[in-house]
Structures are given as structure tokens and as C-alpha cells.
Amino acid sequence: PEVEAEPELTDGFHLVIDALKLNGIETIYGVPGIPITDLGRMAQAEGMRVISFRHEQHAGNAAAIAGFLTQKPGICLTVSAPGFLNGLTALANATTNCFPMILISGSSEREIVDLQQGDYEEMDQLAIAKPLCKAAFRVLHAADIGIGVARAIRAACSGRPGGVYLDLPAKLFSQVMDAEAGQKSLVKVIDPAPAQHPAPEAIARALDVLKSAKRPLIVLGKGAAYAQADAAIRSLVETSGIPYVPMSMAKGLLPDTHPLSAGAARSTALKDSDVVLLIGARLNWLLSHGKGKSWGEPGSTKFIQIDIEPREMDSNVEIVAPVVGDIASCVQALLDGMGQGWQQPPSDWIETLRTKREANVAKMAPKLMSNASPMNFHAALGALRTIVKERPDAILVNEGANTLDLARGIIDMYQPRKRLDVGTWGIMGIGMGFAVAAAVETGKPVLCVEGDSAFGFSGMEVETICRYGLPVCIVVFNNNGIYRGTDTDPTGRDPATTVFVPDSRYDKMMEAFGGVGYHVTTPDELTRAVNEAMNSGRPALVNAVIDPAAGSESGNIGSLNPQSGIKKK
Ligand code: ADP
Fold first, then answer.
1. Quick one: DSSP state of residue 4?
2. H helices within 98-168, ranges in order?
3. DSSP secondary structure string, 5-56?
């Protein structure tokens, strides 16, 4: 008798890879190790890009910003327990920032974890992830991998985007099933972020409020940048004639040099406006919760808010015209409703903001031109500002204290989604993860402007940048410490808590892995080094010596430090 042909088999490893690929996901950011080492190897063999980091938090940050840049969930792959926890920090941060991301972690055997019998890297990861992200799922059967991945993608992308945890126990990967049945079990997610049209009444209400305004203002947030509705948003600003202020990651959605940009007159714009249209920006601490002296007389500001998340409305103050829906649809509906006869805002308001903006720009200008050594922040950032102007399609990654606050104000952006920074939590540690993903996802050159303290959180990833030969130029603003590096320990025993080894040479770290290091002490040298590095397209690190006496503690947010209730005598 003839021997029947063996049925073709597939396994959990391949089903995970096939499910991701079927959904257009081409890149995995992660750190290999038990039980996911082979998954990474096989994904690479199957043509996926697998970018291996030195620490999961940076792989997670890379995945998060890949999600922001592409609207597809960025994938972070980690081992169990500690690797999972490291990635979880980035997942929580992605969720807070409304970036779509999926953290996939291998985990130990349920039977042992649930009886707490002490497995290798035992941890109930699903339970721990749940409160820290938008959704969390576990797949136990190979036949459910397709559905599990589909649920994760939909949860990450639809509505308000966020982070999703996908728990894959080690045993799942080795399970086998019939290959054809396996292929059939996969799900291609159709329309992962369906349009959500605003109600016509909500649009009519918003337009009525806008029409009544004498001093209207638009605030663009990173939700507006994420939405990729760039042309509609520009059209809304220009058709309405309403000045706008961009939140930091919305800079460049319209060029910062646009005549209606009130970015350089931000305080006046917030304080004196009477009607504010928020587009993808929350009234959280970054906007003083919509109240207090930043917003002028109590009750003097009416808010209209466009957001996909209904519960965002009235979170801090009353929203007189909530517009719930996706930004592209809402902005288009407002534009349609404005029609032909739209009245531009009173010219005295536009004039007030223009005058204030020009005065602020003129006041800043001389500070940006000094070539003195040691450099202060303004002079160094003045040099980088010119470089970004000449290279508007480069991506700027920015973190630090003074380095962040001052760069945000000084460096103009010209194109959407080119400025990536510390986001909603105002954290440090995103630098190298964001830089890697920005280069991988966009193929554009990346300029990373880093405080020396901020750089320390992810600095080891310069090896990753060198290994993949990415076009990343890191500038470390080196002022010898956290904030200023000028403190001393009053006991005389140790260095002060905020001080690093003086005159450190971060450029040597880059050289250690084959990249190019520069050590600069003047704005002219800084300009030459960064231009040379960015022209070469090779990994580079510029150690830029900054006067430790320049800047202020915690930059703009020093007032968030708690002060003792005891009055100083
Ligand atoms: P910023 O920090 O720049 O002020 P936030 O992160 O506070 O911005 O706000 C972004 C907002 O954008 C979130 O409330 C989120 O729900 C919303 N959002 C994100 N994507 C969309 C979208 N496609 N349509 C509508 N709202 C969105």
C-alpha cells in the first residue's frame, strides 16, 4: 500500500511571525533571551527586521515611537519577568502618550506560575501588565494566535491609541498544528482604526462658539500630529485665520515660521484668548489644567475640544463644545461647516500676537549668536537651530531639563512629526530608543539633542546605533551633571548627588563601537561637527561642553519641586 504523505505542520513560532506579517508589521524591537530567542531568529529568517537592543526599555521606547510615526503598533519583544518589567515601563509610557504599541513577552508555564512553585523567571505577567496598559491578552493555544494578534492590533490602534500587552507562554511556541489550518486561523485586521465621525450638532455647536470669539486660539497637540491629517489641519488654520500654538510634538505640523504661529507668544496667547479650540491636546499639566494664571482671569476662557476619547471631555475644566471623533473627520467637518462666508478673527488680536511674537524673537536673537566658550545653552542651540533649518526633513529627538525646554523654544520645526521628545510624563530615557526607531522607520537622518543626564539613561544603546550603522548624530550637552553640575556635598564625603565625573568625554563612548566622536567647546565647532556627521550619515556623538553655570535647575519646571511648609528663617 502507498504511504500517505505526512501533512505539513506549522508551529507557534511561525504562526506569531505570520500573523504579524499578515498585518503589515515588518519590524520587531527587542532583546533576545529565553524563551523568545528563536522567535527573533526565525522572524529575521522570514524577512522581518529584528532590531536587538541592550535593554528592553529602549526597545520598548523604540516600538512606542514607531507606533506614533506610522499609526501601526510598534512591536517590542522581551523575555519573561525582568525583561518584561523593563519593557512594561515603555508600554505604560506609550499608553500615557496615546501611542499604539504591543509588548510581546514570553512567560513561564501557567501551571507553575499559578501555583507559585518557583519557575525560571516566574511572574504573573498578565496580571501585572493589566492596570498599566490599554489592554492585555494571553494566548494558550497555537490555533488562537491569529485572533490574539488581531485583538492586540485592534486594541492598540482603535479609538484612543495605546499600549497592549500580549503574553505568550514558552510552551505556545513549540505547539504544532496542521499548516493549512494554521494559515486559515490567521486574521488580517480590516480597518484597525475606523473613522469616527463627529455628530453634526457637535460641529454646529463648536462653530457657534468659535464665531462668538474675539480672541480665538487653536492648540495643536501630538494627537493632531499622530492623526496624519496635515493638509486638513493646515487648511483649518488658514481658512479660519485663527492663530495657533503647537504643543511640543505638534511643532512642525505647520512650520513654526507660519504667520499664524503664536508659539513664540505662547504665554500671551493662552492668557488673553477667549475661545480655545484644542485639537488632539489634553488639558493636563502641560497646559496648566486649563486654569490658573496661565489662562488669565478665572472663567475667561471657553474650550472647544476635538478628541477621539469621549471621557477626555471635562477632565479638568468644562468643555463648552465637545467634538468627539477622529481628528481627520472632525477637522474636515469644521472646515465644511465654515463654508464661504467665514469671518476672520478681529485684526487687533492677530496684531497683538504678532507684535508679541516679534518682540520675543528679537529679544532672543542676540543670545543665539554668541560664539563664546564655554558655551551656554542658547548659543549651542542657536547653532543647532540653523542646522535644523537647513535640514528640515531630519528628525529631532530631544530630552533633558534645560536642554529640552530651551531647544523646544529655540529650534524651529518645519515638517510634521519631526520632533520627538519626552511627551506627557516629561520623562528622561527615551533618547536612544526613539533615535533608533526614527532612523529605522523613516530612513531619515536623526539629530538627538540630549542633556548629559538624560543621555545616561539610554547611552549604552550607542552600541546598537553603531551595530546597525544608523544615521544618528547625538549631541550631548555636557555641563557635568544633572541640571548644572555645580553642587558640592556639604559633608565633604562624596560628590554632590547631582554631579557627574567632571569633563567626561561621551564622544569616546561612540568611538568605542566604531562610530565617530567629536569634542567641541564653541558653537562654530559644534556646527562643523554636526554638519560633518550628518553629511556622512554615520553614527556620531558630539560631546558639547556647556558652561555648568548656565541654565537653571529642572529647566522650566523647577516649581514642581515640593517645598517644605516650614518657613526658612
Ligand atoms: P500634547 O501632549 O501634545 O498636548 P496629548 O497627548 O495630551 O497631546 O493629547 C493627545 C490627544 O489626542 C489624546 O487625548 C488622544 O485621545 C487624542 N488623539 C490621538 N489620536 C487621535 C485621533 N486620531 N483623533 C482624535 N483624537 C486623537
1. P
2. 110-114, 125-129, 145-157
3. PPPPEEEHHHHHHHHHHHTT--EEEE---TTTHHHHHHHHHTT-EEEE-SSH
- Grid coordinates standing for 400? 533633558
Element (H, E) at 276: strand 275-279
Q: Is the CB of 307 under 6 A from ligand 1?
A: yes
Nearest to 87 by CA among 25, 173, 163, 169: 163
Cell triple for residue 294?
A: 496661565
pTM for the complete prediction? 0.97
Is the Cβ–Cβ distance between 148 and 166 less than 8 Å?
Answer: yes
State pLDDT tens for residues 199-210: 999 999 999 999
Cell of 146: 491569529
- Enter the ipTM: 0.98
Please give the span between the terminal C-alpha atoms of the chain, in angstroms, as a whole number.
102
| Amino acid 469: pLDDT | 98
Q: What is the pLDDT of residue 208?
A: 97
CA distances for 543 relative to 15, 25, 204, 406, 486, angstroms = 46, 36, 54, 18, 18
Query: Residue 276 corresponds to which cell in the numbers above?
Result: 480655545
- Measured from the Cα of 282, ligand 1's closest atom is 7
Which residues pair with residue 277 across a beta bridge? 218, 304
Q: Which pLDDT tens digit goes with each residue over 225-282?
A: 999 999 999 999 999 999 999 999 999 999 999 999 999 999 999 999 999 999 999 9
Q: pLDDT for 71-122, tens place per residue?
A: 999 999 999 999 999 999 999 999 999 999 999 999 999 999 999 999 999 9
CA–CA distances in Å: residue 296 to residues 191, 268, 284, 293, 299: 43, 9, 17, 5, 8
Any atom of ligand 1 within 6 Å of the Cβ of 221: yes
Rounded to whole angstroms, how far apart are CA atoms 567 and 569?
6
Determine the residue of 218, 219, 222, 422 to mutate for testing ligand 1's pocket, defined as the one with the most ligand atoms within 8 A of the Cβ atom: 222
Which phi and psi (to 5°) does residue 15 adopt? -65, -40
Ligand 1 near 280 CB (within 6 A): yes
pLDDT band at 1 (very low <50, low <70, confident <90, very high): low
Distance CA 227, CA 87 (A): 25
Confidence band (pLDDT; 50, 70, 90) for 396?
A: very high
Q: Report strand pairing: 419-421 vs 446-451.
A: unpaired
Query: In terms of Cα–Cα distance, which of 214, 157, 173 is closest to 24?
Result: 157
The x, y and z cell numbers of residue 565, run together, are 511648609
Distance 298 CA to ligand 1 centre (A): 25
Using alpha carbons, select from 241, 247, 246, 295 the residue that is nearest to residue 268: 295
Q: Which numbered atom of ligand 1 lies nearest the CA of 229?
A: 23
Ligand 1 proximity of 226 Cβ (cutoff 6 Å): yes
Q: Which three cell numbers stand for residue 330?
A: 472632525
